[in-house]
Amino acid sequence: MENQSSSIESLVDRVKNYVETRIDLLKLKAIDKTSSFLSLLITMIVMIMVGFVFFLFLNIGLALLIGQLLGKAYYGFFIIAGFYIIIGIILIVFRNKWLKTPIANAMIKKMME
Asked: For residue 36, how far is the Cα from the chain centroid?
């Protein structure tokens, strides 16, 4: 009887250790996923900021060039602004197909890796 009792206690201890190990593994996996996602997010934010500054100066240069060619500097800025209004309208119309769905799918794919 005592042998059976110690076998049950041993089994209970093994199950307890297994559950604790499994919980630790899940915590480590969650930490890994979170750190991977955050590092990707921070990298993307930095790249977007650098790209934005480049894009801003490029647009200012183009606006000044167009304005110089047309004789008045502000004409170039109006033309560049009109171009971006058209792009903005197109993006609003197709935002779900071009932006929302691909970004959501990429985030889900990254989290599932």
From this structure: 11
Q: Which two tokens stand for residue 65?
A: 């060039």
Tokens of 58: 């490029």
> 77 and 63 in contact (C-beta within 8 Å)?
yes
Q: What is the mean pLDDT of the chain?
A: 89
Q: How far apart are CA 40 and CA 19, in angstroms?
A: 32
Q: How far is CA 69 from the centre of its chain?
A: 41
Sign of the torsion angle spanned by Cα atoms 96, 100, 103, 106: negative
User: For 26, which DSSP code?
Assistant: H
pLDDT recorded at residue 54: 97
Question: What distances in angstroms separate CA 81 from CA 4, 53, 94, one per listed residue?
Answer: 83, 17, 20
| C-alpha span between 77 and 4 (Å, rounded) | 87
pLDDT value at 1 more than 70: no
Query: Would you state the structure tokens that stand for residue 78, as one six-digit string?
Result: 């109006």
